[in-house]
């Protein structure tokens, strides 16, 4: 069990198929690959890089823009697929990190290394917010396409509320590393987006 990788090629192939499903314009394989690249950049900071890799692969495995429990369903899929590959405490950590992507609040782990890993994982998930303006704009358009069924006034109101919540936080990112790299641009991007949304309300 311990020598077997958490995520082997067969599992990557199975999960890749889920991320290639029609209707996924942002929550797709490119998002997973971007997060895996960031995890590679941060590898020396991570206590359990393999667990982070597993959480990345599974965190959006179940994605339906009309559902409210995608994160819980993705965590349940991880628990099912990784059973026997990870011990229960490691599996619980992976599952808790996946569930935490619903709120982006760090899970209350007692272990400092697990808390740090979860903080970095959640920051990787939000790094698109601090991308270059054109990449951020492409992300926003892609998310809008995923929510194509939401009428424009409702979309503008809902999206504005999300952006305002993020901007009201003292920090968007949990870790110093990501704050330095992404926070100023993330605030610029979201402020610009919010203004655009509100001018048409």
Overview of this structure, please?
With 201 residues, the protein is mostly helical. The chain has 2 domains: 9-126, no CATH class; 129-199, no CATH class. Helices cover 65% and strands 0% of the residues. It has 9 helices and no strands. It has helices spanning 9-19, 29-41, 49-58, 70-82, 88-100, 112-126, 133-146, 152-168, 176-199. Helix 2 (29-41) crosses helix 6 (112-126), helix 3 packs across helix 5 (88-100) and helix 3 (49-58) crosses helix 6 (112-126). The longest helix has 24 residues, at 176-199. The protein is globular, with a radius of gyration of 17 Å. It starts with 8 loop residues before the first helix and ends with a helix. 29% of the residues are buried.
Question: Which descriptors apply to this entry?
Answer:
single chain; 201 residues; 9 helices
Q: Helices, strands, pairings?
A:
Blueprint: H1 9-19, H2 29-41, H3 49-58, H4 70-82, H5 88-100, H6 112-126, H7 133-146, H8 152-168, H9 176-199
Helix pairs in contact: 2-3, 2-6, 3-5, 3-6, 4-5, 8-9
Compute the CA-based radius of gyration: 17 Å
- The number of domains is 2
- Intertermini distance: 55 Å
Low-confidence stretches: none
The assigned structural class equals: mainly alpha
The count of DSSP E runs of length 2 or more, i.e. the number of strands, is 0
Largest sheet: none
Task: Kindly summarize this structure in a few lines.
With 201 residues, the chain is mainly α.
């Amino acid at each position: 069990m311990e020598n077997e990788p958490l995520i082997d090629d067969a599992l990557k192939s199975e999960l890749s198929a889920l991320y290639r499903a029609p209707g996924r314009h942002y929550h797709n394989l490119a998002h997973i690959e971007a997060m895996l690249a960031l995890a590679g950049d941060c590898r020396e900071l991570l206590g359990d890089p393999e667990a982070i890799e597993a959480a990345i692969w599974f965190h959006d495995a179940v994605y339906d823009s009309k559902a409210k429990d995608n994160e819980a369903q993705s965590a349940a899929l991880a628990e099912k697929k990784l059973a026997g590959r990870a011990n229960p405490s490691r599996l619980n950590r992976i599952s808790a990190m996946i569930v935490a992507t619903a709120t982006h609040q760090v899970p209350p782990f007692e272990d400092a290394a697990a808390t740090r890993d979860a903080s970095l994982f959640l920051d990787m998930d939000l790094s698109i917010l601090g991308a270059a303006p054109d990449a951020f704009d492409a992300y926003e358009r892609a998310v809008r396409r995923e929510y194509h069924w939401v009428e424009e006034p409702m979309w503008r109101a809902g999206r504005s509320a999300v952006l305002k919540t993020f901007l009201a936080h003292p920090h968007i990112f949990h870790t110093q590393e990501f704050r330095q790299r992404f926070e100023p641009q993330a605030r610029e991007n979201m402020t610009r987006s919010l203004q655009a949304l509100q001018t048409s309300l």
